[in-house]
Every structure is written in structure tokens, then in C-alpha cells.
Fold:
Amino acid sequence: MTEEDRYLKLRRKMIRQQIADRGVRDPRVLEAMLRVPRHLFVPEEIRYRAYDDCPLPIGEGQTISQPYMVAWMTELLELRGTERVLEIGTGSGYQAAVLCELAGEVYSIELHPRLAREAEGRLRALGYANFSIRAGDGTLGWPEKAPFDGIMVTAGSPSVPQPLLEQLAEGGRLVIPVGSTGMQMLTLVRRKENRFLTTEEGSCIFVPLVGKHGWKRDARY
Ligand code: SAH
Structure:
């Protein structure tokens, strides 16, 4: 068995045991996560743990999210293939790759320039062409590319940044962890006739969203 076959087997098991059995059933999400080689998004020395049921360190004190969390948040965006999507917190680029599989165009913003650069290289090497990544403060959104049919924030915020609400298209969906730095509520906001309908989907734990409309850089959490 080749190394790639071994990883594919691990990926099938991850999807069955960690994701489908826990209630994420959207076949498009499951298929996308079967295609994306998660082991190429983690540092080489922990590659063997890429399909474990947990987040993993990726440098700069940041993490690649747990596979289940990626699946859950992606399912909440209800993507059908043509959407324009914004992600805040590129990190390793793994979530962005899953979004590239499921949406028309993906825009992703990462605070740390090194992580942004590395994620961009990974996605290009894998052949993705429907994305742009930039380094900067994602709490300001990406106004030149707005409006977005889907916005996903993959870091924990004290509240929903106003610019992201403004950049959400009519009928669009925004998923964001909102709460303290220790624990957040995964929050779904839907824009309907210029009203914002908010539902709480369940608790989660993310690294802090640091920026103008997030946590302050020097704050003591
Ligand atoms: N989605 C990532 C995991 C994200 S971890 C993946 O698939 O690997 C959260 C990321 O958010 C970290 O890389 C962190 O640097 C970044 N981040 C924190 N505050 C940010 C901000 N204001 N704008 C953009 N990125 C931010």
C-alpha cells in the first residue's frame, strides 16, 4: 500500500467516525473532505497525526481546526457550488481548500503573513485556482470583493464584527464563534430582507480573533 493509499484510508475512517456518525450528513461536504489531503496541511513532523480527532499546532501559536469542526461549519454555509465565500483566519489553508471544493470563489484573510504565504503555496501546489489569500486584519472584511454569499470566521470573537455583517449578501450566511477567549458559541447569522436572523448552533473553542473588531492585540485574555 502506498503512503497516499494509507492516508486515503485514514481519511475515509475520519469521515465516517468523526463526522458522519456525529451528524454531518451533507454528501457534498463529506465528499469534499474525502478529496482534500489534510496531511499536507500540517507540519511534516506531526503528519502522522493529521487525521486525529483534534486540532493540531501549525506554528505562530495557531492551530488547524479539528476535522469535525471544519465539517460542521462548512455544512452550515449550505454551499451549492457557485457562491462567493470569505474566510477569516486562513491558518494552514485546510478550511480554504474545503471551501474551494464547494464554492465558486474563495477569499481568505490571515493575520500572520508567514501563514498566509504558506497556505497560498499549498493551495497552488494542489491545483486550486478559485481562491485569493491576503495577509491582514480580517475583522475589516474584504470590501472590494463584497458582497459574499457565505462568510466563515475560524477564530473566536467577542462579538460579530460589523463590517462582516455589511459585506454579507442578501440571503447570505455567516458562521462565527462568539464568546470569551476560553469558550464560544458557534453562531449562524442569515441575512433576510435586510434583517439579520441569529441562531446559536453549539459550543466550540477557537484561538482568538485579534483585530480592530475582535480582541485587542495586547489584551490579557
Ligand atoms: N481555518 C484554519 C484554522 C484557523 S486558526 C485552518 O483551516 O487551518 C485561526 C487563524 O485565525 C489563525 O491562523 C490566526 O492567525 C488567524 N487570525 C486571528 N485573528 C485574525 C484576524 N483579525 N484576521 C485574519 N486572521 C486572523
User: Anything to note?
Assistant: Strands lie at 56-59, 62-64, 84-88, 105-110, 131-135, 148-153, 168-179, 184-192, 195-204.
